[in-house]
Structure of SAM-dependent methyltransferase:
Amino acid sequence: MYNADQWKDYELLDTGDGEKLERWGSYILRRPDPQVIWPNTGQTSRWTTADGHYHRSSTGGGEWEFRTKMPERWTVSYGELKFHIRPTSFKHTGLFPEQAVNWSWMMDKIRGAGRPIRVLNLFAYTGGATLAAAAAGAEVCHVDAAKGMVQWAKENAQLSGLESNPIRYIIDDVFKFVQREQRRGKQYDAIIMDPPSYGRGPNGEMWKLEENLYPFIESCLSVLSPDPLFMLVNSYTSGISPTVLHNMLHMTMGQKFSGSIHSGEIGIPITATGLTLPCGILGRWEAK
């Protein structure tokens, strides 16, 4: 288990009955989580006084109930990185705090490389990994199909004082973008991807993880430099295990480059119980 246990502005206070209670800066949010299939033991009193509570609808989706007057968005920090947090209509906040384990890891890899590093961040969302790589000194290409998420990422970069760093923002279908980069002869020293279970590109292109992930990883090999630093694959799809990611990386990166492969769950410690909430999986190939 890779635990995101270095946060100061975020804390997973408690979990139970299909929900999690979180502190985002000075605000407490209560949100559903499908992994929480154990009862609420009532160890944390803030359950009934949370500033915001997302209620699921029986017909799909849901809505927020706010007990206190809250700003439309606010800022949290992870070390030198800063992010805008905003409760969205789909229960999300614009940040996945468990990914901090990957941010710290890639910053160490980039800073320790001893050479310029070009990073390709695919399905890049609001830019957590983009900011981490840029802060560590890398040149970053940030690709996401959603215009709103790319704009959010730009705002996060500005918050973090990284607006002048070499970050290229692309709104595009990631599969087509990688193919074009291959034809252009572009190369990257590190690739990060956080693909959804299902998705659509800006022109309606369909993505299904179980069908598309392996050929997509294969296609990414064509835009790697001869001396790559790392490849990182994240997944939140329940049917994909850490061993599956390990095997995919072994059959792609491992066949072409010498290095090591690590995979496992990522999680966040629960303050009230001392347990860990699993939040997805990762697979990493890294150079020796």
Observations:
- The two ends are 22 Å apart (CA to CA).
- The chain has a mean pLDDT of 95.
- The domain at 97-287 is CATH 3.40.50.150 (Rossmann fold).
- Helices lie at 100-111, 128-135, 147-159, 174-184, 209-220, 242-251, 253-256.
